[in-house]
Amino acid sequence: MIDLIGDIHGHADKLEDLLRKLGYAKITEYTHPERKVVFVGDYIDRGPKIRETLQIVRAMVDSESAIALMGNHEYNALCFHFQETEGGHLRKHLIKNIVQHYETLKQFQNRQREYEEYLEWFKTLPLYYENETFKAVHACWDNKNIEYLRKTLVNDRLTDQLIYESVNNGTDLNETIDQTLKGKEMKMPDGLFFSDKDGTKRTEIRIKWWEDPSHMTYKSISVEPIENLPDQRIELSELKSLDFYSGDDKIVFFGHYWLKGEPSLYKANICCLDYSVAKGGKLVAYRLSGERNLEKKI
Q: What is the dihedral of CA 259, 263, 268, 274, to 10 degrees?
């Protein structure tokens, strides 16, 4: 009896509206007599009520009314905060990175201790969740990656040492965390690019990791509908792995991808819950009641 909720990005009012719609009531925190929530990450950045969002989610986790997973924005915030031994930070304080974290930093102005307490809390967030019915992750469930994380993480969580190790480009840990929290990508054909939601020029596309790449074109494998992508078979040599999430596997829930329009299901076992609440879209949930195949609900 689980309700899964997508990326919130500091929209506490919409979160409270959604929780009430799902039948949760607030006494000291939001609870339901029969159900609990799995949040798939990205609680911070962009929105107007980031502190309030964290208060709601953390209180629900502390009361065991919810499980909260780590998103790439929480991971980025940790790396933005962690200092390198030779100076600087694990996530460089470049303009684009500062802009991404600006709303969070602004809303914690003069609340440094409170912010650092939440950074410590971020380190308690697992990177994935699985039970007998379903799986949940922020961006990408690759079975090999998750098995690697099971062996490497401590109770499915990052330690300080692992955070420092995770930024070493090209290592197994770096690539596994990058794919798990940010998804799989591939290069666009030479000369092509697009501008993302923040206006940043991109030459790589986020790919549908639940599709067999050997049957896909650049246009069909891209999660985002990008106009200038050619409708031609992809170069498989551009992919780091040809593995994909099987239609015979458990239901998997994830966020991260800034989908637009009316919520819909990709497949009977594939559900993205991120519908761009921070860009005027919807905050989305899926009410799971034991079914083995997804079904669209209102």
A: 40
